[in-house]
Amino acid sequence: GDSLKQLLHAIKEEQAACEQKHGRYVPVAVKIAPDMDEQGIRFVAAALLEAGLDGVIATNTTIARPEGLSGPRRDEAGGLSGAPLFAPSTRVLADMYRLTEGRLPLIGVGGVAGGADAYAKIRAGASLIQLYTALIFHGPGLIESIKTELAGLLARDGFTHIADAVGVDSG
User: Fold this and answer.
1) What is the Cα–Cα distance from 10 to 28, expressed in whole angstroms?
2) Is this prediction's pTM over 0.90?
3) 39 in helix, strand or coil?
């Protein structure tokens, strides 16, 4: 608890010092874990708001090993990314949006492999999407595919701008 608050305070001090020195404000976003319980998410949201961070990246990889994983490395230690991360990261994203009342830009990441995944993250509260694992497997063409699918989903649901869909499923 106190360690997180001290760390965030130190980050903001360094950010201010850099702005003073270089004459340019550089936003800072903090990447959070998908493995927090509800109390942890609530505490982190309050600490981020109190510190005045510029955004949240929800989420990093998970140390959990969900049922149904297959393959020779399913029990390997370390962070798990890709499709198994989608549901827990989207839950944390929605919780963070609700707890911060949409006051912090949220970057949705974790298991985004297509337009429907990106749209779910947006509806959960993301105003930006980060790609990683799927981009490795599908290459840069994935971006155009996501854009096309996302445009169709927004139109289907009557949204004219992505911003209109941000957080509609967070409650």
Assistant:
1) 12
2) no
3) helix
